[in-house]
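Researcher: Good morning. I'm working through a list of sequences from a screen, and I'd like to move beyond sequence-only analysis. For each chain I'm collecting a predicted structure so we can compare shapes side by side. This is the next one on the list. No need for commentary yet; just the structure.
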Amino acid sequence: MRSQIIILSVFVSIMLAMGFVFIYSAGLSMEARLVGFYASEYLQRQLVAFFIGLLLASIAIFMQGSTHLRLSFLFYYPMTILLLTFVLFSQSRGGAHRWIELGSFSIQVSEFAKIVLLLILAAHFGKLKGEKATFWNTVIFPLIISAPIIGLTFIEPDLSTSIIMLAIVLIMMILGGAKLGYLLILFMAMTLIAVFLLKADLIKPYQLERLSEFFSSLKGQSHEQVSYSLLAISSGDTFGKGLGMGIVKYYLPVSYSDFIFATIGEEWGIFGMFLLMFSYVGFVMVISQIALRYVKNIGGKLFVIGFGFYVFLQATVNIGVNLGLFPPTGVTLPFVSYGGSSLISLILGLGISFSIILERGEDEIG
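Model: Good morning. Structure tokens for this chain:
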């Protein structure tokens, strides 16, 4: 197992290192645009988030893995209350209530809510060992316990994160043993709900505009963000223009966050993009292999595998946006994009995973 953990750590280190390097590189474009802004400012903030994440992960690792699962509801209720508080009282940005401001830093609670969602679902499915898989215990009840977190995230409004959360629930249902027929029923129900949301005008105008712009771009009307992203990627060739030498990032919005993959493509070319994508594939494969082979606790096994697929899914969505395959979502590139809340929550999730992996024995959740 030691060699696999080392390999897993190498993949994570590659992601983190590329993130730090290209956050600084993308910061050069911000320095050129904003008076008094320094290229290292975002990097410094990201490093602070990294060390906070390491501290929390260290605490998580020293706890028994099964303890995280047993205490999952103690995380669940405060998280739900915190999300509700955010919706009611947090700082509004562009009509969205996702952040709480702490001086020059801001916290996006929904990033941590995804980890809590994984924990609560893993704990639930871990308790089902030996029980018959029914529509209630593999679909309906998981939806009931997920609904407050997903619903409040949607109300913020944060459509992209709520969709990622729904995907997490679906992944955990599949891993937890939900039958195909049950999932088909769920899919049909979700389709009806989506139609209702559209008819009832519950999806915000800016969210519909994003989708409209994307589908218009497929018909030949250029989508500005995606167009610049594709230009950056296509101009990088095999090995890119060189670190810090990118030009398109000066015109590409949030080149340090949502579109950092395009910055990597321009400056490190196909080589850089392949290295990063290989790291994500390797990450989900190795962490899943470790969980399947060494983790005896069913709930723990589900959390570790679910966390791996969550990271891979979010990376796929972000890269898909950069390649023009999906509409812009605001979803970060895990371990790479600038964003303190995202990075801290991911490192914490990794710490919980290591805690579960390193705990030996047959202890099941009671």
